[in-house]
């Protein structure tokens, strides 16, 4: 595995690989790799000639008061995991390397952002879209892999690729979960033992809603209230949102039909957790 810190070296190597006809699979991350990231790497490893993983904690996607400085980092640990997963190139640029000067052009996401997490994190997805635009130009991947745990991010990336005509195939990968259903996340380390036990109820609430929908309930508000009630009853935490929307458009719906997402965000004392399920209702 080759670890690269500079854009220039990355572009030189990628140009050579592309010239020789190699297919590039790309997994962008902010590091502190866990089983969810490893699942993305495993799939990308199977489907491409070359696997590139980036580790970059992107300051543009952190808002005021968010945990940029406290975001978990352990590059040596990440390097070992990446090597174990057969990563060919680990791209780990500094902030100065990625943003050497103040920007003259800004990427702004116009749609799919004023709901779910985007509603309480203004500018977050602009930061995501900006760094991905840069990474896509640097890495030139044929396929890019994202976990559906952050389904809004997948929807935004889908729009970015389509609108800017990137010749990239987006591969959404199902959420990786603990045995009790909790979605794996770097932020789970912030949960107290009691909160960790309660956190499994987010997924239990989503599964309860899925069962009720499959039994015929088509009123979105009934489902939202059902999930809120379950979380309030089982967790000492604050609900940020429970929303049911079309997917990937993320538009409001009057009845549950077609492809929809049921998403939740809950704030525990030191961690904000998100989860979702995506359903296809005919």
TrEMBL record:
Metabolic or biological pathway, per its Swiss-Prot or TrEMBL entry: Cofactor biosynthesis; (R)-pantothenate biosynthesis; (R)-pantothenate from (R)-pantoate and beta-alanine: step 1/1
Where in the cell is the protein located? Cytoplasm
Q: What is its main location?
A: cytoplasm
**SUPFAM superfamilies the UniProt entry points to:** Nucleotidylyl transferase
Q: What is its EC number?
A: 6.3.2.1
Binding positions for beta-alanine per the UniProt entry: 61
Provide the active-site residues from the annotation. 37
* Keyword check for Cell membrane: no
Substrates-to-products reaction catalysed? (R)-pantoate + beta-alanine + ATP = (R)-pantothenate + AMP + diphosphate + H(+)
* Binding annotation for (R)-pantoate: 61, 153
Q: Where does ATP bind?
A: 30-37, 147-150, 176, 184-187
Q: Which UniProt keywords apply?
A: ATP-binding, Cytoplasm, Ligase, Nucleotide-binding, Pantothenate biosynthesis
Q: Which GO terms describe its molecular function?
A: pantoate-beta-alanine ligase activity
Q: Which residues form a coiled coil?
A: none
Query: Which additional comment does the entry carry?
Result: The reaction proceeds by a bi uni uni bi ping pong mechanism.
Q: Which family does it belong to?
A: Belongs to the pantothenate synthetase family.
What this chain does, per the record? Answer: Catalyzes the condensation of pantoate with beta-alanine in an ATP-dependent reaction via a pantoyl-adenylate intermediate.
Note the subunit structure. Homodimer.
Q: What is this protein called?
A: Pantothenate synthetase
Q: Which organism is it from?
A: Mesobacillus maritimus
